[in-house]
């Protein structure tokens, strides 16, 4: 259960600011599906607009990183932060963008390994090598 | 400062298990540089051997993900976990593997955005959409 | 599901130490409602007593910070730590103490922004400015 | 040490996008001081502009929450996320905005308590009370 | 719900690599019960094999730490990392290995206290005492 | 550098509340050494007194868990939370209480493994087995 109301399409339709964001999500993604995070953020139009603008700018704009790579980076951060919803939504997005089973398996191996060595390094308080300095 | 001794090459040379791992790190990476995390783990030969075996298997073995993508995933997890040493070492590795300034900039944007939306989703306790179910 | 039994009022009534804490919670809050965290902690009377004493001292004692501000700080930490129950209970408490929709929206914006810049700063390992030194 | 170059005023002056952000930071804050996070972000003008725009919108715009309350929420998140630089910079900002020693002491007490009860609740996996449902 | 299929015994039986791991889990633990984490990892045989090999080596091999102490350390990390499944599975394992109610109560007190003082120390950015240097 | 003043013995001597806590720390531990966390908390006498009272009650009182086991649990949480000072102080305390190199090595192996499997379980969103229910 959420701490806020999850807006239906009908409720969104009654609020021009929310409707405009939902319209843009659908146009940008080429899909009628608006997932729950946007329906929850609809309670705070300022945060909804700012968050969608940032997601659109960062994730939908062509650049140096492949869209699938960006989605896998999003997955990695969401796993490390323990965000259940985010893990589900970005795993689904990565699959939709072409993440194969083998890629998923390797991502899990890297994320698991990184979590392990992060802990070991923190335990040992390893000093940064001068070679890594800029 | 570390919680353990950082082993010099001379000290490593006096311990066959440690020397064997250092030799394999050098051979695998094609470089004489052995960074501090291995010199710290040298105090615990069991952990040193197991960790290096896992790093070698996960990071050095060819697979479905590009080595640079794996390194950027490692960076993303290390940032999310707040591991200073790991951020430095994996940022340096990613650069050595070809991460351009533009790629780095986009990685930062994705990691920052993911951290922000992870927090918003956790705050709102957004329910997982049925569409994301396997 | 919990890892421990959630105590009913009847079970609490059979244990004087637990009953005393439940009585004090009700008297301090002016409400008959005892939420589940206390019913779970009832299995460990030492931890129950120590935790309630600390909550009472920190949250219920008048001081320099407004009770609503304290509750919003509690929310912010609970979100950052990803504690589902805590997010729910402290969001409900903050609303009960007067958090308006606009205040909630601004809290979300600050928490989201802080999470993002925390990640960026960690990624860049920004050195502390001398001006911030005490 | 940072993973990127910390830009001097002279270097910023040679890049119009960076200079424009630094100018706006100075004008918005009414101070000549530009702290290191902006000098580090200067390497990524896209991230610099987007981050400053968001900080300005969230932190400098009048709203329902007092500026000091926003700064203390920022502190709370930064502490929970373990971001050294952020803890320093936002503690300094909160003091500059009027955080008294007594307020600081109470903030520490709330943040410490929240961290403790977050851990206990996670350990016990306390189920959310139906009373907290929206 | 998981992001992957949870394998039944019948499905595992059709994949020799998965079946071999399930067989070894049962033989090592002296129990027919194979818990869900292994049934989820079965989708990635490489990760399944590597993870089980590591769990077996670390948790099932006799050493200097009592098996119950190792299990309680696992609980402590899982609580701190906010991993719901892990908290449940390792609390159950610790109980099966002899964790009494009193020991559980003391573990909770230590984990709660550590979380609190970790936060305070991070807030205050306490410098490491020279006496703690190796 | 700390966000607050680190009190000297002379400064502590001028404040009866602080001096009383420092005296009790020395008497309880049988050592003249008062480490920096207490010298930082001295700025907030309320937090200083409450924190020391809790540390004394949880860590110094005999119970079902061995003092060394409690110290190692404290280490595990501090590592997972990434608290540099806490890792140093509790590693030093555990050594002083008898943690051998072999025990330390095994602790590191457990903490590393737990961090890895926590991440994998979170990535896969493994459902809790009914067998783990209380």
From TrEMBL, chains A, B, C, D, E, F:
It comes from the Bacteria. One of its GO terms (molecular function) is peroxiredoxin activity. The keyword Phosphoprotein does not apply. InterPro entries: AhpD-like, AhpD_core, CMD-like. Keywords: Oxidoreductase, Peroxidase. Residues 45-126 form the Carboxymuconolactone decarboxylase-like domain. Gene3D superfamilies: AhpD-like. Transmembrane segments: none annotated. SUPFAM superfamilies: AhpD-like. PANTHER family: CARBOXYMUCONOLACTONE DECARBOXYLASE-LIKE DOMAIN-CONTAINING PROTEIN (PTHR35446:SF2), SI:CH211-175M2.5 (PTHR35446). This is AhpD family alkylhydroperoxidase.
